[in-house]
Every structure is written in C-alpha cells, then in structure tokens.
Write a structure and sequence with these properties.
The chain is an alpha/beta fold. The chain has helices at residues 2-7, 11-23, 28-43, 82-92, 112-125, 139-148, 162-168, 174-186, 204-217, 247-259, 269-274, 279-285, 298-301, 317-330, and strands at residues 46-56, 99-104, 129-133, 152-154, 190-197, 221-226, 266-267, 290-291, 334-335. Helix 9 (204-217) packs parallel to helix 10. Mean pLDDT is 94; it is low at 1-6. The chain binds 5'-deoxyadenosine. 5'-deoxyadenosine binds at residues 65-66, 156, 158, 196, 225, 227-228, 230, 270, 306-307.
Length: 350
C-alpha cells in the first residue's frame, strides 16, 4: 500500500514524494479514484452531518486573511446568547444532524464559564455531540470544557511553514498553535486541524508538508479548503497560489485522504465558494466523508463572512438542512446515523 511505501522515506524524501504526486498533471483521475476507494474502505458510505452555529463574530485577533479580523471595522459584531444557541441545537436532530459545531472569533465576548454552561445545556437537553472551534486556549480551559461534556475541538494550523504562519498571524506563532493541539490530544478530546490551500507564498513543498503534518499529528478530523482573498483584509489583492490550476484543491484533498485513511475529512464550504453548487459534492467524491451545513441564523450570516462567496447566505436553516440531505442522496451516499465519533482508538488520556 502507498501508506507503507512512504514510511520508508526520510522527511525530505516524503515531502518530495507528495509534491510529485500533487504536480502530476496526468493520472489525476487515478488519484481521485484511489482517495475515494480509501474513503470507502475506511469510513464507509456514511456522510455525517455536523451543523455549525457561528455564535459570535467578535474577534481579538488580526489574521491577515480573515474577514472578521479585529481591524475590519465594516463587520457588525454580534454574540448570540445561550437560549438562542439552544433553540437551534434542539432542532438539529430532526434533520439528521448529530453534532453541533460552535464556532466564533477568538475572545468571542462570551467567557469560558458561559461557554461551559452552554456545553452542559446542549449535552443535557439534546443527544448531540459537541464540537468547539474558538481558537487558542490554555490547557485548563480545554480541560474544563471537556469536563462540561465537549467531545471535539477544531483548530486549524493553517500552514506548516512557521515563517509564513508568523507573517499571517500577528497574534500567535505556529509553535503556540501546535501546543494547543497537543494539549487537546493529551486530554482525549477528539482533535481536528487542517490548513488553507494556496495561501500567498505557499509552495508545493509547503502544501506537501501541510499534508505530512496532518498525518504526523494523527488527527481525528482534518478540514482543508482553498484560500479565498477577502477584499477588506491585507490579502485582499493577493491571489490564491494555485489560481488557474484549481484542480490542485481537489488533488490536495485526495492526497490528504490517501495519507490519512481513517480521519474524518469534511467537504468544506470553501470548495462551494470556488465551485458553486458542486464543490462540496466533488470533495465528497474525492476523499471527504463529512458535511458541515451552516446553522447560523440567516440575519447574522452577513456578519460572519470569513471569505467572499460563502454559499447559501440567504437560505433558511431548515431549507439548507434539507438540501444537504438531498445532496448526499444525489451522489449515492447515505446520511450517518450515530455521532460519527473518531474511529481512532488507544489514546493516552490525562
Ligand atoms: N479563505 C479561506 N479560508 C479562510 N479561513 C479564514 N479566512 C479564510 C479565507 N480568506 C478559514 C481558516 C479558519 C477557518 C475557520 O476559516 O482556515 O481556520
């Protein structure tokens, strides 16, 4: 198997091997097919649906690519309260969403105890798994949230190149980000990370190293998606590093699956922003096995635009949720019934 072949190489050779796979112009259909086969063998035909509630657009950080960065004064900052979040969470199981993903900017205007109380209420009042995605936090906060019932955490490392990381993140270093990921893993929290594809300054070798880092971290979930310039950010006039070669987005996804056979990999929203209406379907057919519809109230979605072209900003939560079920069926897949927890086992848990 390809997996075993790569283990034999040293780090540089591994990077080169993946770079070659990514730059192969011919044989691209073969890469997609292999990724789809590996997905089917390891993850089955189920697509688990995890509904996202973007509960606060308040952010203290100034990441150069992100539409809700602190310096973007044109964003209306909101924070939903616990009852508003619970009202949405209670409707999710009826449309086969078995996980709620609570996402916000960093320092979201809701303190750690309030977030803990929301986790407890969701676990008490619904049968949903709970995922949080609210940025870098100390070990003790992750532990506290775990003890409140949090199942999973998403925190992308964005790029494995520490210089590029530092140019893009005035508030944080790659090492600090990785420390957070190690803390989450140590606590036995199912850990998701990932990266953007085609950040300005990214090379094919960096992309290959991003894929290798996902594998090294032995992640439970891996979310990746193309970088899309947001006009109100310092990178607004930059281009995606693979502009004109958008197949690279899917190749990255497929190679990611080939090297991470048993991780949950979502078909992320950014694929639909680049390929409207079909991007996420194609992602599901080229390695992905998770769908994450947007459950943010329609009137707030315009204030949580990380990048332009986010689909379905006007569709109601209900319409969106139902269209997702149809999408999954239309490509011959089935909706996952249980929580869709990580299938990785035997972790050292503190
Ligand atoms: N283009 C694509 N993805 C982006 N994200 C933030 N800004 C952009 C952008 N301009 C992604 C980051 C972040 C996730 C929530 O959204 O990877 O981790």
């Amino acid at each position: 198997m390809r997996k075993n072949r790569i283990i034999l190489f040293d780090k540089d050779e591994r990077t080169k091997a993946i770079s070659m796979l990514l730059t192969k112009g011919d044989g691209i259909e073969g890469i997609y097919r292999e990724a789809d086969d590996i997905r089917k063998q390891n993850m089955g035909d189920e697509v688990y649906i995890r509904g996202i509630i973007e509960f606060s657009s308040i952010c203290a950080n100034d990441c150069l690519y992100c539409g809700i960065r602190a310096s973007n004064m044109s964003v209306n900052r909101y924070a939903m309260n616990a009852d508003e979040i619970l009202d949405i969470a209670r409707t999710m199981e009826s449309v086969q969403q078995t996980t709620v993903v609570l996402q916000s900017g960093e320092t979201p205007g809701i303190n750690d105890d309030e977030i803990g109380a929301i986790i407890r209420r969701i676990k008490h009042e619904t049968n949903l798994a709970v995922t949080l995605s609210v940025g870098n936090r100390p070990y003790k906060t992750y532990k506290y949230w775990r003890d409140c019932g949090m199942d999973r955490y998403l925190l992308r490392f964005e790029t494995s190149d520490s210089d590029l990381f530092e140019r893009l993140h005035p508030d944080c270093s790659l090492d600090e980000r990785l420390e957070c990921l190690y803390a989450l893993k140590k606590l036995g929290i199912q850990t998701g990370s990932g990266f953007m594809i085609g950040l300005p300054g990214e090379t094919i070798d960096i992309l290959a190293d991003n894929i290798l880092l996902c594998r090294k971290l032995d992640l439970d979930m891996i979310g990746i998606g193309p970088f899309i310039p947001h006009p109100d950010t310092p990178l607004g006039r930059e281009k995606n590093a693979y502009e004109g070669d958008e197949d690279m987005f899917f190749k990255a996804l497929s190679v990611l699956r080939i090297f991470n056979p048993d991780a949950h990999i979502p078909a992320t929203t950014a694929f639909d922003a680049v390929f409207p209406g079909v991007g996420r379907n194609l992602a599901l057919q080229r390695g992905a096995n998770i769908f994450m519809p947007n459950n943010t109230p329609v009137e707030l979605r315009k204030d949580y635009i990380l990048y332009p072209g986010k689909p379905c900003v006007d569709e109601s939560i209900e319409q969106y949720a139902r269209s997702v079920l149809m999408r999954i069926e239309s490509i011959g897949r089935i909706t996952g019934k249980g929580h869709g927890h990580s299938i990785k086992r035997n972790r050292d848990i503190e």
